[in-house]
Input
Amino acid sequence: MASTVSVLTRNRSFRRLVCAQLVVFGADWFVMVPLLVLLPALTGSGVWGALVLAVDTGILALLLPYTGTVADRFDRRKVMMVANAAALVGAMLLLGVRSADTAWLALVGIGVIAVAKAFYSPAAQAALPNVLDLDELAAGNAVAGSAWGTMTIVGSSLGGLLSAVVGPYACFWVAGLGLVVAAGLTAVIRRPLQAPRDETGPRQRTAAAIREALVYIGHRPRVLALVTVKSAVGLGNGVLTVFPLLAGVYGVGALGTGLLFAVRGAGALVGPILMRRVLTRRSWLLTGLAWSMALYGLAYLGTSMVGWFPLVLLLVFVAHFAGGSNWVMSNYALQGEVPDRLRGRVFATDMMLATLAISVSQLAVASVVDLVDERVVLAGCGLVTVVYAVGWRIATRGLSLSDPVPEPQPTPVGR
Output
């Protein structure tokens, strides 16, 4: 088995793909954290921030069934680069958010970025196994799974700091520059990002392609279990709306908001790396997924009960250590279950269910955020996740991931 260090140093294609994802994730947080601080300051309400988060995840959920078929049909490299260019346009639109009267531009800009992410995410995730050898899959997934957490730390903490020092608009410019860099990195990946396709037969229609993936998922209980597991953390994700308000309660402002997002990212970074040993033991995965969901919910229940900001940061770290572990374990398990020709659509369905859960959670929080104490919101989100985790484990108790997978996975050649 390759180590996390060796897979980065030896495999240039993988390194470039991960670096491109790091830049994209960082740009996303350089946009989101300053915007979540800016909107309450301009409008005097927490609703706009909740709506921004709901638009971000809601558009993702609506588009992913289609964009997954794009990731399976077309050149994933080109899809990712065009998505970077579209996200750049969305980031530039945010420069127009200057008052309560122009707050609606935040929804438009984030909407454009969300469309771009809907195309980028399934293409990048489906491409990952194609730039890795079989002995690199566990280490590569640990590294890729920690990429989001890494840039949540960097993007959210630096975004919060830079927003406090020079304002949010400088952050939007930095995000735009990062998206240009990401497109350049993707352009120089040497390995093909998908297996060869049969171009001689008629091309499958979009509706038929989506239906094929849904039938595939529905007839395979292990795959169905794996594409529903992220929804637990998603249903608890409304807590993000409360972060700027919680920072205000403790008197730590934009810097505190950045710290909350940063420790969230730190947990999501450390979790996948420490869970690498679990990835090599498929028989542990379902139990690990159930425990990670439950720990996320319990940590936020604890956050609602404490009154010291450093302890809040610690519990947020624990929650997202669990959430990051949950994400990488389910992704790794799906990569071993699903053939390349269906992988984009199955991962798109996986992300669609997760983002729908996030949207539901954020819209629910948006409806009460100005009426209910922040601690009640935190407790409610944590409790929902714990209940989902228990129900999911009961429903999947008869399944095992240790049996062989019927479809062989292709081994890419060349670097």
